[in-house]
Amino acid sequence: MMRYCRDVGMQPLYAIKLIMNEIKIFCPATIANLSCGFDVLGLCLETAGDEMIIRKSDKKGVRITKIVGADLPLETEKNVAGVAALAMLDAVETEFGFEIEIYKNIKAGSGIGSSAASSAGAVFGINELLGQPFTRKELVLFAMQGEKLASGNAHADNVAPALLGGFTLVRSSSPLDIVKIQSPSELYATVVHPQIELKTSDARSVLKQTVSLKSAITQWGNVGGLIAGLYTQDYELIGRSLHDEIVEPLRSVLIPGFDLIKKTAYENGALGSGISGSGPSIFALSKGKETAEKIGKAMSAIYDEMNLPYEVHVSKVNDEGMKIIAP
Prior knowledge:
The structure is a single chain. By secondary structure, the protein is α+β, with helices and mostly antiparallel strands. It folds into two domains: 2-180, 2-Layer Sandwich (Ribosomal Protein S5, domain 2); 187-316, 2-Layer Sandwich (Alpha-Beta Plaits), CATH 3.30.70.890. Helices cover 35% and strands 29% of the residues. The chain contains ten helices and 14 strands. Strands 3, 4, 5, 7, 8, 9 and 14 form a seven-stranded mixed β-sheet that branches. A four-stranded antiparallel β-sheet has the order 11-12-10-13, with helices on both faces. A hairpin with an 8-residue loop joins strand 1 (2-5) and strand 2. The longest helix is centred in the C-terminal third of the chain and has 20 residues, at 213-232. Mean pLDDT is 91; it is low at 6-15.
């Protein structure tokens, strides 16, 4: 069955072939910002994520038929997965539609890319069913529409690493220009999520619209240092660069025990630590799994003492990104 894609400024008209009727995928969690890279840097996690089942439907359009693990809207236009999928289908001509089942393991408002996992997962799965008419980088544009629904801003720092894997740098959002950066082989992430919800839109509301030149210069240096550290596998440079001069001082007050968690992460061998995305999750990067697990235990002890429920994830950087679980 052949269908056609309109020119959407990315590639010319071509035929699309539906290659299978159903797919099950893993939609990974992500860490955005990475201290110095507000809205431009992110990394993909390996051990945390959602699952989605997407199937072809004889009825045109997109329908969310099931959501397990979260109280989210089934209405297509109110769900980030639905909005992202609709944006993609605006660029292709088909005589059929798609149904989406979402199995949420990433809590909304956790700071590890819950909305991005759904947005990116929807367009990745549909693209696979259609025979991959779009590259993974091209899918980012569609997934960003889901992020716009979630936060009011079409940012790519979560959906880009979810789709591409590894570390990603969003050099520009308009026009979209994304660079994938390979992760050093021994780099691990530890993430602790205190069980409170902090909406991205609320976390953005505390930010200032202007920053001092001095702070901006410091931040630019850290972004450059982090990128250089990743490319040269210089773990000490990575650690020195994981410093946020602009956003963290404003957002950290919204997160219980932030300063103590960060201090404890350093004391247990972290290269660097900061707010994951818009929070309330806190991340630490370290060299080696043993150190990452040690940091996780130390973080846990703090929230145990505070009697605050939490989750901890220890993960190697996921270089693959989205992946198929079952055809």
